[in-house]
Amino acid sequence: MPAGHRRKPYRAVFMHYDYRSRAATHIQGAGKRFRRKKGIMPLLFCIFAVLLLPAGWLVFHSETRDAAGTAPPVMDTLPSAEKSANSESVDAVVMDPWELRLGAHLKEKVIRVSAGDTLINLLVDAGLAVPEAYRAVDALKKVFDPRDLRQGQALRITFDADSGKKGLVFQGLRLELSVDREVQLIDCPDQGILARMFDRELGTRPVKAAVDIDASLYEAAMDADLPVAVLIQVIRAYSFHIDFQRDIRSGDRIEVMYEEKVDQDGRALSSGAVLYASLHTQGRFLPIYRYETEDGVTDFFDADGKSVKKTLMVTPIDGARMSSGYGMRRHPIQGYNRMHRGLDFAAPTGTPVMAAGNGIVEYAGRNGSYGHYIRIGHPNEYKTVYAHLSRYANGIKSGMRVAQGDIIGYVGSTGVSTGPHLHYEVHNRGKDVNPASVKTPPGRILEGEELHRFRLAKSRLEQRYASIEKEAKLAEASGKTGEKSEGKSGS
Questions:
Q1: Which among 22, 120, 142, 361 is placed 20 to 30 Å from 244, CA to CA?
Q2: Distance in angstroms (rounded) separating the CA atoms of residues 315 and 345
Q3: Looking at residue 429, which CATH number applies to its domain?
Q4: Residue 185 sits in which domain range?
């Protein structure tokens, strides 16, 4: 039999086996898929049961509560009256955590920051454990850099004295950065330590003060409870017209109305801007009014709408005593008579010196017997000189533009000098003039509609001042009446 004929049955058997194998494989695969589906069904049933069981429990629990006469916990279905009745419990959950710290059981320690203090040391000294102090500082770093701690700031640390534990338990702290800003930190049991920068909302109220000058203006202001910051504003405003070293006499009087910043409880925190002032000196009455012009410039104006600012200041230094005037004198070091071409103001080393007017620094450096020296060129061919300085303000150099009142240097005793003082000169068209007698035009004169607006503002300030004075007199009168009635009842 040929070889090819013998192989034919073998090939047929092989093909048949191959076919059967495929069919068997197909059936077997179908069986496996069926068995897998049978295994998935119980699993899906369990999943649905787990998901539906809580919902069924809630329905059952709600029906049980309804049967017991208790209102279901569905707030949206309540009438508005019932909503308001239940709002307290809801608010207790979402209440601001910063409000939860209030209570009579809290104790507060107030610490004033001294030079060299660190926040860690202050907290440990106040009673916090070292790990607790580091944890508080780490939380505080999110809103405040502890390296910015400054001398004089108030650190208020709150402790819980009724926590059931021995000793005081730290609750939080407040660091007062300024009168209207502070850093707050609170330790919440459920939220951990929270920190924030908080800006306090401050109000303002007008306050009146009257200073009757006897000998010293400063001492009289302190006796009248006039803040130093307010006194400085008044002196600067009048310094263009008045030499406070020579023109002020015993018996003169200054009246001031200024703003006082208060917190929400009405407690005074700091003084603000001067609104109105009047100076009674040598038979003259000189009122000034704070006014903001339409172009946004705030300045003091006299009763006629003229700016109190002049091209040049008479005294470019605060709180100094004029130790030597303009004119011929015997030189304290050289020992012979010579012309003194300026004014000398005795003041401690480091006292700030201001630019007397707007201008450009022509020279800043050493100048022989003048020591550290600055010369400024002003409009209308005026120049001012500042000598014997201890140092210059940052950035002061030749060619720099300065504005009136800018700090340009600090009092010293460099050059030929017997002690710390400012030597101040004024030159006009190359000739020296007496700084105390320089008559320069006002910085601004209001006219037209602007003058009308100023007069309305002036009238409102005067009425405001009069109302404060009237209220003070009524309060004084009621106090005296109360004293009389107490005396009668006592007798």
A1: 361
A2: 9
A3: 2.70.70.10
A4: 104-199
